[in-house]
Amino acid sequence: MTLQKIIACGDDAYRLIPSDNHQRHAIAEALRSKDIWGEVVVGRESVTVQYDPYEMSPEVARKHIFSALEQVDLVPQEGPKPITLRIRIDEKSAPDLLTCAEANGLSINDFLDRITSSDLVVDMLGFAPGFAYVSGVDDTLVGQRLEHPRQLTHAGSVGFIQGFLGIYALDGPGGWPIIGQVSERLFDKTSGNPVLLAPGTRIKLEVPQ
Amino acid sequence: MSLEIIQASPQSTLQATPRTGMRHVGIPASGAADPVSHALGARLVGNDISCASIEITYGPFEAVFHCDAHISLAGAVSEAHITDKPVAFHETLKVRSGETLKLGHPATGLRTYVSVAGGFKGEVFASSTSTYLPAHLGGFDGRALKQGDMLAIGEASFPLPDEPLRTPSELQLPYTNAFALRATPGPDLPEHEAEIWARSFSATRRASRIGIELDGDFPAIEVKPNLPSAGILPGALQLPPQGRGFLLLPDCQTTGGYPHILQVNRSDRHLMGQIRPGDSVMFLKRTPDEAAADLKEKQELLLPWMPDFRL
């Protein structure tokens, strides 16, 4: 496993940039297999790992990182279980679906077929608790953020911009055009593990007939 | 066993320890913006630091106790009265049922912590009672306190001594209107940039538990547009294109795409919670190794009084 770069991100974190961007989730999993880090956060092209400088020096933290990277090659990482999500597309659940399909010169069915047949994976989470950036969307489909973000986007809403889906786990403001709403509960605040979609999760989207 | 809020403006929330190990699913830290003051307050009433205190931003604050209680005041110091009697910060105070606690505006600093033996009860989310306002999670219904709220108080974990406890004087940090924060270069600070360490910046009115905007002469930074979003932590100083810095506090997002130019060091992050609009902020340059030594020094100053507290 090779890194393109390892950058000190202040006094208690390193940012790792893998040579192969697809390795981010395996690296994060290998790091997490040792319970010595504060946070391990996957970004678009990086993994940020936080350590406690009272417990280990910057140099020791670096050594632990490199020994975890060796594990990535030795032990195949399993990754999270794939998840199937059912997506509702009635007018209330999918206010921007028709506009998005028309912008691509497609019927609603053809547009959705292109999306559901894409190889979808949770690329990272961020922006808000449980908000999942899903990559792998057929990148010939075009789409961009709404000119006027909504004050309220409902939990479960699936947004679309070129190359990505954005899945809202909670009600909140949102700037992505919404092409559907999943029926599954994505966030359970009473659970010790409140977020359903972990980084690296493969997703199958189904439109109930 | 409860406390009734009479006035809690402009913003008071329940805060305890931060949420840790959840940033990869987008869940921010939250917790006391000044965790040292919260911990000092907890210590005076025999609480574990996971017990929630009320974090009062600027005040005024007024509340009436519906039970006898031991309480403490820590953080930004203001005039404080129990009923009509002036009371001190940094010592255990006894309150009788029916008495009123009243706080004014702090002269310096921004956030005051009221702790009660047994802790204030709140909604536990992801192992912490701390309030995360943007998503209405944790704390008192996920929101800021307002008039009429009745906060339940937990059972005190051990009997308090008759003599009040006092915070050792060397741990009673005074605040001024000028902050010097030790920091290390962030990943997006140009290698030979030196000016930023010589200048001082001014906190604007855009200040919340998410972050504080800083105005001043920031270096012009050439970065490629659309930096890929990356994990980011409280203490980061970001420089958005409009040219004013944004210093991230405990409720900040978990990932960000703005240039990350400095990182306030772990040793000094607790001070960020006391910066108020108009205060000046300077950054003192450290290497990661120097920062680790600073952290060790401050941690060891705190440990004899608070063995379970970590910066």
Please report the total strand number of chain B as a whole number: 20
Q: How many helices of chain B?
A: 2
Query: Residue-averaged pLDDT of chain B, rounded?
Result: 95
What global shape of chain A is seen? elongated
The number of domains of chain B is 2
* Radius of gyration computed on alpha carbons of chain B: 19 Å
Structure write-up:
The complex is a heterodimer of chains A (209) and B (311). Chain A is α+β, with helices and mostly antiparallel strands and 209 residues long. The mean pLDDT of chain A is 94. Chain B folds into two domains: 170 residues, no CATH class; 125 residues, Cyclophilin (Beta Barrel), CATH 2.40.100.10. Helix content of chain B is 8%, strand content 30%. Classes of the chains: A alpha+beta (209), B mainly beta (311).
What would a concise description of this structure say?
The complex is a heterodimer of chains A (209) and B (311). Chain A folds into 2 domains: 72 residues, Gyrase A, domain 2 (2-Layer Sandwich), CATH 3.30.1360; 124 residues, Beta Barrel (Cyclophilin).
Topology:
The complex is a heterodimer of chains A (209) and B (311).
Chain A: E1 3-8, E2 13-18, H1 24-32, E3 39-42, E4 47-50, H2 58-74, E5 83-88, H3 97-103, H4 108-116, E6 120-125, E7 132-135, E8 150-153, E9 157-161, E10 164-167, E11 172-174, E12 178-182, E13 202-206
Parallel strand pairs in A: 5-13
Antiparallel strand pairs in A: 1-2, 2-4, 3-4, 5-12, 6-7, 6-13, 7-10, 8-11, 9-10, 9-12
Helix pairs in contact in A: 1-2, 3-4
Chain B: E1 2-8, E2 11-15, H1 35-44, E3 53-57, E4 61-65, E5 69-75, E6 80-82, E7 85-86, E8 93-95, E9 100-103, E10 111-116, E11 150-152, E12 178-185, E13 200-207, E14 211-215, E15 230-231, E16 236-238, E17 245-248, E18 255-256, E19 260-264, E20 280-285, H2 288-302
Features:
heterodimer; A: 209 residues; alpha+beta; Gyrase A, domain 2; Cyclophilin; seven-stranded mixed β-barrel; elongated; B: 311 residues; mainly beta; six-stranded antiparallel sheet
